[in-house]
Amino acid sequence: MGLLSGKKAFIFGVANDRSIAWGIAKAFHAEGAELGFNFLGEALEKRVRPLAESVGATLILPCDVSKDDQIETLYKDVEKAWGKFDILVHCIAFANRDELSGAFSNISRAGFHLALDISAYSLIAITRPAIPLLNEGASIMALTYYAAEKVIPNYNVMAIAKSALECSVRYLAYDLGGKGIRVNAISAGPIKTLAASAVGGLKSMLKTAGEMTPLKRNVTQDEVGTTATYLASSWSSGVTGEVIYVDAGANIVGMYFDEKKEESPAPSAKP
Ligand code: NAD
Ligand code: 0WE
Most buried one in 97, 122, 199, 223, CB count within 10 A? Predict the structure, then answer.
């Protein structure tokens, strides 16, 4: 019996086999969950459908989370196929590419709206219609990034969106706690995915991040997947409203310097 046997999980945000959402899907599947997926547009359907079928997914549905009617249609299909379900995963972010570099003060009103709509409001938008369909003990989770708390150059408008997302996680957790529904966030370290690859300087960011972490490496999609499995399961039944770090310890570091480059200590002064 797997940790998630008998549970149904709907996962938003698989684009390809490098997606964090796919790392989560594989881990849930290994623990016996029944899975459902969305895809964004026909181009991604070609990638998502074979992946979803490889883990025996029973639901593969189109959904642009910026469209309320598409969310509504999706949950009608979820209800038809599953009735109720247990786990909801949000792995979605989007901002205009040209607002993920350069001056923070250049963020446009339209760019702010877009990033906050797709990357933060969407958690509320996909949670509200799910509430009547979720079983007692259900678990909702979203993916966030440390730039919500401390400045990471160029993350810019997405940082505001992640702060809003993390705050939404706390308020949703408070709201839904009485229904026995938990809501948490996973703050992942940098991982080379489709979204991350489109960002300038990712390679050197991954190199620096992999040196400054206590574990002296970066994290993988699969490591996010196993923490997501813990959050999805009853093993985390007392945990809600939290941000859990899967970042090789990066968030605890106050200062980093390269100890390999450090000169050997000066000889102590002779008395
Ligand atoms: P990814 O490109 O694999 O996934 C992003 C997903 O967002 C895609 O599946 C895309 O289709 C979806 N999406 C974008 N706009 C959408 C819309 N309007 N409607 C529906 N779906 C939409 O990249 P990823 O890195 O796996 O990102 C997943 C989550 O992890 C994001 O929330 C991201 O911010 C977060 N995250 C990523 C990293 C990293 O370094 N890769 C680190 C921390 C957190
Ligand atoms: O959340 C993310 C990626 C978010 C993202 C990426 C893109 C690129 C393509 C959102 N929207 C878009 N829009 C596009 O057109 N990450 C945590 C990965 C990431 O993004 C960064 C990072 C890291 C790490 C941006 C700047 C600095 C570091």
Answer: 122
